[in-house]
Amino acid sequence: MNPLVSIVIPCYNYGRYIRKTVESVLKQAYKNWEVIIVDDGSTDPFTISALEEYKNKSGFTVVAIPRSGPSAARNVGIETAQGEFVLPLDSDDMIHEDYLSEAMSAYEKDPSLGIVYCEAEFFGSMKGKWNLPEYRFPNILLDNCIFVSSVFRKSDWEKVGGFNENMKNEWEDYDFWLSLIERGGRVYRIPRVLFYYRIGHSSRSQRSLDRFLPLYMQLYENHKKLYLENIQFLFQRHLEAKRLEEEFLILTKSPFVYAFVRLLTTFLKYLSLLKRKFLNV
């Protein structure tokens, strides 16, 4: 099995990082790949100059579009791609030299897989293992555990209509995984750290709690049937969180747990709003 893998790299003013990203691709043990770089309206002269280097490089295609955001940029890149498989890769992240070979091996062993990803580490302003929970359904309806740099078939991307551009600047990958899962896509995590996620350069790495609710509500609108089919699980999780809130309230006099309790209480309010939304359908 030696299918072409298209690595799609959106880039908006990240010229100072993209060379390291590309270097991690060039080191791949699996050699049948192409790189599609989508210049998402970069205005930084350094970035524009950096991308010029790849326009005539073998195995690379550079596509320039007006500023459109990550969902649209990935869709343009995947539309351009010639590969059977796709790996989105942000222009400031990196992959281990074995990532593609391990992913293709997984697909060869089990062609029914729809998403293949791996374990990951942070680098940049924060270092260490990214301790994401292993994928389980329906748990993913409440908490995404699959990062965007995961491998999938271009044909599956076509079937679900690509990355949903109504997700704007966040959670477009979460929405896309739910689309694949809705169609029966099976998920496999390679038990090795093969992806490196940069922390510290932008707000997309640091999400605040007050942004969660509209994102969850948009996910619900995009995948209403999937959420309603699993509403019993969602209510059960809400009741479990409510019980935890009551247990922790007795500790609120302690300054060490007060901040945590406030955070938990706020999240519970968001879950209650979601529940009311479900019941009003």
UniProtKB/TrEMBL annotation:
Alphabetized Pfam families for the sequence: Glycos_transf_2 (PF00535)
Residues in Glycosyltransferase 2-like domain copies: 6-143
InterPro entries: Glyco_trans_2-like, Glycosyltransf_2, Nucleotide-diphossugar_trans
GO molecular function terms attached to this record: transferase activity
Keyword annotations from UniProtKB, A to Z: Transferase
Statement: the UniProt record of this protein carries the keyword Repeat: no
UniProt keyword Transcription regulation present: no
Name of the featured protein: Glycosyl transferase
Organism expressing this protein natively: Leptospira santarosai
